[in-house]
Amino acid sequence: MATINILNKVFSKNVLRELIHEGKSEVLNNAYQQIFNEHASHLNNHIKMQQLYAVLKKEYRNEYFYKNTLLNKLLLGKHSLNTTVAMTELPVNRSKADFILINGKAIVYEIKTELDSLQRLSNQIMDYYTVFDHVEIIVDEAHLDKIKSLYLNTTVGISVLTKKNTISQKQKPVENRQWLNHIAMYKVLRKAERRTIIKMFYGYSPEVDQFSEYQVLLKMFQKIEIAPLYEQFIKVLKKRNTVNLYQNDFKNVPYELRFLTYFSQFKEKDYHNLNVALGGGKFRL
Questions:
Q1: Model pLDDT for residues 238-285, shown as the tens digit of each residue
Q2: What 8-state DSSP symbol labels residue 279?
Q3: pLDDT for the residue numbered 39
Q4: What gap in Å lies between CA 9 and CA 31, rounded to an integer?
Q5: Distances in whole angstroms, Cα of residue 250 to Cα of each of 18, 120, 187, 200, 238
Q6: pLDDT tens for residues 80-114?
Q7: Residue 76 placed within a domain
Q8: Interatomic CA distance for residues 61 and 66, integer angstroms
């Protein structure tokens, strides 16, 4: 368990920030030394990351490993940065959606690693269906039989992260809008996004004071028919990520760090400095 705690600290935004601002990370160096029992001074940061990620892959497939695999194999492998956007840790009612892909439709992926409990799963699934119409569970093989007993022949998709680290889909998710809920969708949106949607359907956005705004917009939001509202809701969410502005830079990020980088809102200078920290070039201040 100590090893997984060390690795959790390595594959984090804190370490990524250290690399782009300082060109090095004590957390990374200490982790390498503790796990491999040797100093890391003779290795560049990219090699250290690769070797530590290999330990994750072989022995500790944690939530980061699942998320990074989904991003690489689905967003970059199956889809495209031009047409598809990913989201993570999005609060939905009492749950947080682990990973969401949005292109023509939106799919929520709920991750259950080998060490995860399935105790809250049914509540999580119901929460997601109040905001999104496609839900899929991606699990370790240890959970597959239990998941099948719960969700086979339902609208919930089922996939397995195999021992070979491929994603094997056992059941496709089916559209389910039965539980879409105006209030749950409204809470997911940011203030500007709510106004954008209101203007789409009403032709204007009301002038109200900040104390009344939430309730006034919510009442207008609730009067919109759910089907066309959902289509615009997805389009608005899809505009959140800015990675497509720096596609060429992002594609040069090592496989092991793509999930972290995707959700770090990097600018061109940040990509450059990360590349330098991992092995070459000069820092930009």
A1: 998 878 778 889 989 999 999 999 999 899 999 999 999 998 544 444
A2: T
A3: 81
A4: 9
A5: 18, 35, 30, 33, 18
A6: 898 999 999 999 999 999 999 999 899 999 999 99
A7: no
A8: 7
Of the candidates 171, 205, 222, which is a domain's last residue? Answer: 171
Q: Is residue 285 assigned to a domain?
A: no
Other beta carbons within 10 Å of 134: 22
The CA distance from 277 to 54, in Å, is 20
Domain span at residue 230 reads 182-239
CA separation for the pair 61, 44 (Å, rounded): 24
The secondary structure of residue 253, as a DSSP letter, is S
Count, residues in the chain: 285
Can you give the pTM of this predicted structure? 0.93
DSSP one-letter string for 166-218: -EEEEE------TT--HHHHHHHS-HHHHHHHHHHHHSS-----HHHHHHHHH
223 neighbors 263 (Cβ within 8 angstroms): no
Which helix (H) or strand (E) covers residue 2, if one does? helix 2-10
Which segments in the chain show pLDDT lower than 50? 281-285
Q: Are residues 160 and 87 in the same domain?
A: yes
Rounded (10°) angle between helices 191-202 and 210-222: 50
95: exposed, middle or buried (Cβ count in 10 Å: 0-12, 13-18, 19+):
buried
